[in-house]
């Protein structure tokens, strides 16, 4: 079979299986039926007359042939993404473009303290701002579809250039009338006596909460789950449960919505971090490099020199 005839969709599925370590996890990331991925890869292996996957314990890994196809896909996709960015520059007639992923809880401050002054210095640069979970962010940076990202979570992901900064403490967010509002700090064991508000499993804050509860031998069982911080704040403000965020995320709501932030008395809560991420191989334009430096200076607490 000639290389040009290899189906791009099947090789993309193969690449994602290699990245995520299994067909089911790749299917969840792509929002595709696992059976469809399995069929496509079985058909590709038959046409190649080579095994592309092998099982190791509970994980599925790529064979040598599978790795070659996946690496070629990644390189080709990165070149196409670079070409698309160049074409986008021409379409917008701007001085370049930057695609950045920013965690929901950090959008307001990044826009106010980084994007706003950056745009004053680089008014012709087109900025594409996205938001989403850490796993997808890492995948998009690896593929070359995102230049840089600001994420929140327990650890910086491997394989990328990463600068980490303190973000804590994580707090219980409650109404002023809530019993916990009187605490200076609240223990994890005290939280289980009240309705809890969780975030989607891909949120860094939820990873932190799960880790804290697990260390205390408890299960985090929320009464509500949200995929927007604004929803969690609204539920907390209505007195329907305890939300969990850093004070930086909920700063405005604390003053305007009768809410209180009570620090969680746990090492993990005190040591929460955000991460600035980029590919170690991707070369930045001068504008992108300047934006990266501004982000580093902002999260490091150093004022930016204009």
Automatic annotation (TrEMBL):
* SUPFAM superfamilies membership: Periplasmic binding protein-like II, Winged helix' DNA-binding domain
Against Gene3D superfamilies, the record matches this protein to: 3.40.190.290, Winged helix-like DNA-binding domain superfamily/Winged helix DNA-binding domain (1.10.10.10)
Give start and end of each HTH lysR-type domain: 9-63
Task: Give the domain of life.
Answer: Bacteria
One GO MF term on file is: DNA-binding transcription factor activity
Keyword vocabulary terms for this entry? DNA-binding, Transcription, Transcription regulation
**Which Gene Ontology cellular component annotation is one that this UniProt entry carries?**
cytosol
Provide the family line: Belongs to the LysR transcriptional regulatory family.
Q: This protein is called what?
A: LysR family transcriptional regulator
Source organism of this protein record: Pantoea rodasii
């Amino acid at each position: 079979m000639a290389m040009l005839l290899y189906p791009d969709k099947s090789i993309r599925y193969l690449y994602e299986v290699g990245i995520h370590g299994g067909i089911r996890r790749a299917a969840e990331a792509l929002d595709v039926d696992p059976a469809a991925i399995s069929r496509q890869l079985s058909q590709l292996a038959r046409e190649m007359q080579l095994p592309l996957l092998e099982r190791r314990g509970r994980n599925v890994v790529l064979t040598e042939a599978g790795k070659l196809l996946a690496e070629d896909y990644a390189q080709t996709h990165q070149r196409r993404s670079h070409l698309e960015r160049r074409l986008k520059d021409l379409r917008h007639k701007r001085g370049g473009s930057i695609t950045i992923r920013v965690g929901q809880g950090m959008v307001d401050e990044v826009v106010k303290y980084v994007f706003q002054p950056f745009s004053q210095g680089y008014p012709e640069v087109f900025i594409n701002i996205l938001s989403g979970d850490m796993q997808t962010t890492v995948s998009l940076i690896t593929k070359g579809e995102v230049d840089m990202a600001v994420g929140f979570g327990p650890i910086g992901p491997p394989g990328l250039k990463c600068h980490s900064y303190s973000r804590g403490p994580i707090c219980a967010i409650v109404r002023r009338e809530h019993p916990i509002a009187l605490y200076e700090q609240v223990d994890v064991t005290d939280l289980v006596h009240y309705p809890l508000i969780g975030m989607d499993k891909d949120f860094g804050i939820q990873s932190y909460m799960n880790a804290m509860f697990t260390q205390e031998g408890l299960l985090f069982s929320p009464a509500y789950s949200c995929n927007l911080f604004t929803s969690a704040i609204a539920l907390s403000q209505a007195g329907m449960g305890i939300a969990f965020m850093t004070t930086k995320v909920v700063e405005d709501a604390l003053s305007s919505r009768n809410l209180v932030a009570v620090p969680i008395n746990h090492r993990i809560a005190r040591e929460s971090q955000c991460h600035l991420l980029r590919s170690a191989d991707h070369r930045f334009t001068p504008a992108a490099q300047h934006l990266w430096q501004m982000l580093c200076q902002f999260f490091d607490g150093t004022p930016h020199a204009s």
